[in-house]
Design brief:
- The chain has helices at about 5-20, 20-50, 55-80, 85-100, 105-120, 160-165, 190-200, 235-255; strands spanning about 125-130, 130-140, 145, 155, 165-170, 175-185, 215-220, 225-235.
- The protein is α+β, with helices and mostly antiparallel strands.
- The chain folds into three domains: about 15-100, Helix Hairpins; about 120-170, Roll (SH3 type barrels), CATH 2.30.30; about 175-255, Alpha-Beta Plaits, CATH 3.30.70.100.
- The strands form two sheets. Strands 4-3-2-1-5 form a five-stranded antiparallel beta sheet. Strands 6-8-7 form a three-stranded antiparallel beta sheet, covered by helices on one side.
- The radius of gyration is 34 Å and the shape is elongated.
């Protein structure tokens, strides 16, 4: 086979492929790939400027890239003669059935969008929702991940965070250690308060500003109840709380201040 025949065969195959739209489909896919790559790099540069929060920027980037690929895919399929109208019509019927089955996922998706745009908490914050609490490790459109103090990882659906109050315990730089305790009814409350304030002043990790609080809170069944609140740096909260409780217990023992416990009298009556 001479060169002329080879070129003729190549030309014939090219016309077959071109007439079928395969070349056009390939061009659409390449253009889609290049556009998606350019958009991803542009958003990466925006992220390095740190003028836009990372979570909303990541969501917008994914949304734009998906739209580019969908548009390129539709154009590529049309180029090879695929009837998208019929396919989309059939998909619409199936989509209704799928929509009913995916209401929870859609609710979580919408909730995740609001959480990301609201920015009430960020990765690294310690939050509490209902009976769950932990350090935020990741925020996604469907759920967030909380790392508990015992190192367990919890996946919390975004819908739960929208429907319930979320307490961000590390939003500010300082946090208050609160204790409720009781002393014997025969105790000198002024002496008890002096001892508590002395412990507060001597503790190196407790702050003098804002001022700590020692208040009489009420009469218990077997004790005079007090509420104590002392401020510390948020990063030191757990260390300070345990050390502060131990220091109070030691000071009470040294000053002869008793912390009562409930006493029950049990009387048994014999049948005559």
């Amino acid at each position: 086979m001479d060169t002329q025949q080879i070129l003729g065969k190549i030309s014939q195959y090219y016309r077959i492929v071109a007439d079928g739209g395969w070349v056009e489909m390939f061009v659409y896919l390449v253009v889609g790939f290049l556009l998606a790559n350019i958009v991803s790099r542009a958003f990466a540069r925006l992220g390095r400027l740190r003028r836009i929060p990372a979570q909303p920027l990541r969501f917008i980037r994914k949304l734009v890239v998906v739209c580019i690929w969908l548009l390129a895919g539709f154009q590529a399929l049309q180029a090879v003669g695929v009837d998208l109208v019929s396919i989309l019509g059939a998909a619409g019927v199936a989509g209704i059935a799928i929509g009913f089955a995916s209401q929870t996922a859609l609710s979580n998706l919408i909730s995740g969008f609001f959480l990301i745009s609201e920015r009430s908490f960020s990765p690294g914050d310690y939050v509490r929702v209902n009976s769950l609490e932990g350090t935020v490790e990741g925020i996604n459109l469907l759920s967030i991940y909380l790392r508990q103090p015992d190192n367990a990882l919890i996946r919390v659906p975004c819908e739960l965070l929208i429907k319930n109050p979320v307490v961000n315990l590390t939003k500010d730089d300082i946090r208050r250690c609160d204790f409720d305790l009781g002393v014997d009814y025969g105790s000198d409350t002024e002496k008890v308060e002096r001892v508590i304030r002395r412990v507060m002043q001597e503790h190196p990790m407790l702050l003098s500003e804002p001022a700590p609080v020692v208040q009489f809170s009420g009469f218990g069944d077997s004790s005079l109840n007090l509420h104590i609140g002392a401020w510390c740096k948020t990063a030191d909260y757990h260390t300070v709380r345990y050390a502060f409780a131990g220091a109070l217990l030691k000071a009470f023992a040294g000053e002869g201040i008793s912390i009562p416990f409930p006493i029950r009298d049990v009387r048994m009556q014999r049948d005559a």
